[in-house]
Structure formats: structure tokens, C-alpha cells
Amino acid sequence: MQLAVDEKPVVEKRIKVIVPIPMDATGVANRASQLPVNLIAPGFKPEFVAVEWGAAFGDSYHNMLLMDWTVFQAGIDAENEGYSAVVIDTVSDSGLRALRSRLSIPVLGPGECAFHMAMTLGKKFCVLTMWDEWFPLYEKTLTEYGFWPRCASLRSIKTRPDVAELLAGKEEVIFAKLKAEAEAAIAEDGADVIVLGSTTMHQSARWLADNLPIPVINPGLIAYKQAELLVQLGLSHSKKAFPFPEVGNDAGIRKGSA
Q1: What torsion do the CA atoms of 207, 208, 212, 216 make, to the nearest 10 degrees?
Q2: Reported pTM
Q3: Cβ–Cβ under 8 Å, residues 130 and 175
């Protein structure tokens, strides 16, 4: 079809969403389902990409290091690949600050975005997650971002997560456990907003929002929409806050892949 003289072809703004755990196409598709098609703004295209190697779970300081490193590796070429922004698909915000130092395009983490959104909707939030082994992930980000005074509690349902299949087939049991723990956070901890502690929990977000008296934050969706907003506004992170390295080593970083 020939364009009118004053028409310009629409160029999609691609957003790279980095999954911090290596997985197959089915697992990546399950992660991508956190973004309903109707909520993706016209002209934007999210592309979910899993790291090539690394941690199986973020259940230890060992794996936290692997997640930081492999997400960083997966993101350093995003700007050269033509992406308009990067979103890290984990509430641990693995590799976030290192990527901001390396890139000029916006780099968003669900943890930071979710905590800030929670504080636009309430006064104290509870991070509600699958198991206690993920608590160090939040302890790291809450400390880095200075959010401890606004965090009512960290709570889990003490259930080992499935980072590929997510909550599919377990909704009846898992959703009820999450609701009970959220109600305890409201009654006992003073929480007035719930932040889901993992993007792998996105399937529970709508149900919990419909069955709790306070807002429920779906962190992956919030981070993605924040990325769209920054791209639309022409904003990105401060290079005074996140300066480029004087001497980079991209070749060495790429060589570090398995």
C-alpha cells in the first residue's frame, strides 16, 4: 500500500523485557502473559527474552549474584539492538543499576516501580510472596531505595514457586493462601497496599484485587507501563546519578556467557 505524501511509516517502539532465569519458549510465553494485549499501548512492542544461562531460582545470595550478572549481560546491547527501553522481569530488580550505568534508554525494575506506585495509593505496603527464600531479594531493594519506613511487612505462603509454569493449575489452593496472608498483613501489620513479590505471581493479581479491600500491585505490569510512559515523555534516568563507565569492557562481559 502506498503512503500518502505527508504520511510516515509507523515505527514500533520495542521494549526488551529480560527474564532472569533461563527457560524455553513456553516458559517465556507464560511470563509474557502478564501483559494483556489490550494494555499494550499502540506503537509499542514488548519482547520477552530469557537469559541464556544462570540461576534456577533467586533463592540464595549465590543466585542473586548470577541474576545480577546474567541480566546485565542480556541487557548491555539493548540500545544498539534498537530497543527503546529495558524492563527487568523480576521484583529483585537484578542488574538494574549496572544497566542504567551502561545504557541511555530507560531501564525499569518491577520492585522499584511497584514500591513507588504503592506509595501513590497508600501509606504502608506489604510485600506478599511465595516463600521466605525470596526475602533477601526485597531486603536488598528496600535498603537500596530507602523504603523500609513505608514497608509494613514481608509475608509469604511458604510454597516453593514454579518459575516456568507459574501458578497454572494451582489457583484454588494458592489464591486462598495468598488472600489469607494478605488479610493478616492488613489486620496485624497495618498494610494498606499489597505488592506481589514476584512477576511469576501475576496470575493471582486480578483475583486478589477483586477479593481484598485494598489495592494490589502487579509489579511486572506496572514496570512495563512505566517504561512506555518514559519513552512517550522522552525521559530516562539521570546520567549524573548513573554515569557511564570511563573504561567499559563489553567484549569481556559478552565473553562471560556460558
Answers
A1: -130
A2: 0.92
A3: no
CATH 3.40.50.12500 for domain 13-109+221-255 = yes
- What DSSP string describes 165-184? TTTTT-HHHHHHHHHHHHHH
Please report which confidence band the pLDDT of residue 256 belongs to, taking 50, 70 and 90 as the band edges.
Answer: low
* Domain boundaries for CATH 3.40.50.12500 within the chain: 13-109+221-255, 111-218
φ, ψ of residue 76 to 5 degrees: the values are -65, -25
For the CA atoms of 92, 47, 56, 94, what is the dihedral angle to 10 degrees? Answer: -20
Determine the 3-state secondary structure of 128 from DSSP.
strand
Fold of 111-218: Rossmann fold (3.40.50)
The 10s digit of each residue's pLDDT in 83-92 is: 999 999 999 9
